[in-house]
């Protein structure tokens, strides 16, 4: 069966390494012509910068958005809009949940001194409530070093041995 194309008709075909778009064009002189555009998949599959994990989907999105740009949404005109996501919806949801769980809050306190020269730090009540720590819990404080992109820093780790008995076992090893 032969497909007849008329002016403005578009045919989209998948090949082994990309998408081919044929568009029928009739020039003012009455000359009919087929304009062909090729949208290749990325050369490599991976998760590095700008290399999609699903190159066929990414190249299809690019082909459709370029070929039908007159129908896409602009600043002042409605239309369709497309995007390519390198992860699935479940993965995006899981990543968002992990990011929400890891939202950090900052609690500021100062080192204080008792009348007999002992140093102590008062843990803010909001943090104690958040951790579920109560008066009478057995707390372990250890000096440690922390690493971040800016280098090494001295600090302290604080463990609640009442709530986390495994930390006591680590202490004995």
Keywords:
two-stranded antiparallel sheet, 173 residues, three-stranded antiparallel β-sheet, alpha+beta
Q: Could you walk me through the main structural features you see in this protein, from its secondary elements to its overall organization?
A:
The protein is of the alpha+beta class. The protein has two domains: 10-99, no CATH class; 111-172, no CATH class. Helices cover 24% and strands 29% of the residues. A hairpin with a 5-residue loop joins strand 4 and strand 5.
* Percent helix: 10-25%
Structural class: alpha+beta
How many β-strand stretches? 7
Contiguous runs where pLDDT drops below 50 for at least 5 residues: none
Mean pLDDT, rounded to whole units?
80
Shape annotation: rod-shaped
Strand content is 25-35%
Please, how many helices? 4
Q: What order do the strands of the largest sheet run in, or round the barrel if closed?
A: 1-2-3
N-to-C order of helices and strands: EEEHHEEHEEH
Rg (CA only): 31 Å
What is the total number of structural domains?
2
Span between termini: 79 Å
Biggest sheet record: 3 strands, antiparallel
